[in-house]
Design brief:
Layout (H helix, E strand, L loop, with lengths): L9 E4 L6 E6 L2 E5 L1 H6 L27 E7 L3 E6 L7 E3 H6 L4 H4 L2
Bound molecules: zinc ion (2 copies).
Length: 108
Protein backbone atom coordinates (compact mmCIF):
# COMPACT_ATOMS: atom_id res chain seq x y z
CA UNK A 1 0.00 0.00 0.00
CA UNK A 2 1.21 3.48 -0.80
CA UNK A 3 1.06 6.13 1.86
CA UNK A 4 1.77 9.63 0.76
CA UNK A 5 3.97 10.88 3.57
CA UNK A 6 6.69 13.46 3.57
CA UNK A 7 9.94 11.83 4.55
CA UNK A 8 13.17 13.70 3.93
CA UNK A 9 16.06 11.93 2.30
CA UNK A 10 18.52 13.99 4.30
CA UNK A 11 18.55 16.34 7.28
CA UNK A 12 21.61 18.32 8.22
CA UNK A 13 23.14 21.72 8.78
CA UNK A 14 23.57 24.14 5.91
CA UNK A 15 27.10 24.77 4.68
CA UNK A 16 27.55 27.77 6.96
CA UNK A 17 26.29 25.71 9.89
CA UNK A 18 23.73 28.35 10.81
CA UNK A 19 20.53 26.77 9.53
CA UNK A 20 18.92 23.39 9.17
CA UNK A 21 18.55 21.93 5.73
CA UNK A 22 15.93 19.33 4.96
CA UNK A 23 16.24 17.59 1.63
CA UNK A 24 12.85 16.20 0.60
CA UNK A 25 13.72 15.07 -2.87
CA UNK A 26 16.67 15.68 -5.16
CA UNK A 27 14.99 18.82 -6.44
CA UNK A 28 13.39 20.07 -3.27
CA UNK A 29 14.99 21.29 -0.09
CA UNK A 30 13.87 23.46 2.80
CA UNK A 31 16.12 25.71 4.86
CA UNK A 32 15.01 26.76 8.32
CA UNK A 33 16.67 29.01 10.85
CA UNK A 34 16.84 27.48 14.34
CA UNK A 35 14.85 30.37 15.77
CA UNK A 36 12.05 29.98 13.27
CA UNK A 37 11.84 26.29 14.16
CA UNK A 38 11.88 26.97 17.89
CA UNK A 39 9.07 29.50 17.44
CA UNK A 40 7.06 26.96 15.48
CA UNK A 41 7.25 24.41 18.31
CA UNK A 42 3.95 22.53 18.25
CA UNK A 43 4.06 21.18 21.82
CA UNK A 44 1.28 21.77 24.36
CA UNK A 45 3.49 24.27 26.19
CA UNK A 46 3.91 26.45 23.11
CA UNK A 47 0.54 26.04 21.40
CA UNK A 48 -2.84 25.77 23.10
CA UNK A 49 -4.02 22.23 22.46
CA UNK A 50 -7.67 23.17 22.21
CA UNK A 51 -7.69 26.51 20.43
CA UNK A 52 -4.51 26.03 18.42
CA UNK A 53 -3.48 29.47 19.60
CA UNK A 54 0.21 30.18 20.03
CA UNK A 55 1.24 30.60 23.67
CA UNK A 56 4.92 31.10 22.93
CA UNK A 57 5.81 34.66 22.06
CA UNK A 58 8.68 35.96 19.95
CA UNK A 59 10.28 37.67 22.94
CA UNK A 60 10.58 34.36 24.78
CA UNK A 61 12.92 32.91 22.19
CA UNK A 62 16.53 34.01 22.18
CA UNK A 63 17.97 35.30 18.89
CA UNK A 64 20.85 32.87 19.10
CA UNK A 65 18.91 29.77 19.98
CA UNK A 66 20.30 26.57 18.50
CA UNK A 67 19.54 22.86 18.68
CA UNK A 68 21.78 20.78 20.94
CA UNK A 69 20.55 17.62 19.28
CA UNK A 70 18.04 16.41 16.74
CA UNK A 71 16.46 12.99 16.97
CA UNK A 72 14.16 11.05 14.75
CA UNK A 73 10.74 10.15 16.15
CA UNK A 74 9.61 7.02 14.35
CA UNK A 75 9.68 7.72 10.65
CA UNK A 76 7.33 10.66 10.71
CA UNK A 77 8.93 13.39 12.80
CA UNK A 78 12.01 14.86 14.43
CA UNK A 79 12.50 16.21 17.92
CA UNK A 80 14.92 18.97 18.91
CA UNK A 81 16.70 19.58 22.18
CA UNK A 82 17.05 23.34 22.22
CA UNK A 83 19.74 25.38 23.93
CA UNK A 84 17.03 26.95 26.13
CA UNK A 85 16.29 23.51 27.61
CA UNK A 86 13.05 23.03 25.70
CA UNK A 87 12.64 19.62 24.08
CA UNK A 88 8.99 18.62 24.11
CA UNK A 89 8.11 19.62 20.57
CA UNK A 90 7.67 16.87 18.02
CA UNK A 91 7.95 18.28 14.53
CA UNK A 92 6.21 16.04 12.06
CA UNK A 93 7.59 16.03 8.56
CA UNK A 94 4.19 17.25 7.39
CA UNK A 95 4.56 20.31 9.63
CA UNK A 96 8.09 20.99 8.43
CA UNK A 97 7.06 20.51 4.83
CA UNK A 98 4.20 22.98 5.31
CA UNK A 99 6.67 25.53 6.72
CA UNK A 100 8.88 25.36 3.65
CA UNK A 101 9.47 28.82 2.22
CA UNK A 102 11.36 27.90 -0.94
CA UNK A 103 10.40 29.50 -4.24
CA UNK A 104 8.23 26.58 -5.31
CA UNK A 105 6.28 26.30 -2.05
CA UNK A 106 5.82 30.01 -1.48
CA UNK A 107 4.46 30.55 -4.99
CA UNK A 108 1.54 28.19 -4.30
ZN1 LIG B 1 7.20 23.70 22.76
ZN1 LIG C 1 9.61 24.01 -0.70
Amino acid sequence: MWFEINVPIEIGPTEDGLSLRIQWTKEHESVFSPRELRLACPCAGCVDEFTGEKILSEEQVHQNIYPLSIEYVGNYAIQFSWSDGHNTGIYSFDLLRSMCSCDICSSN
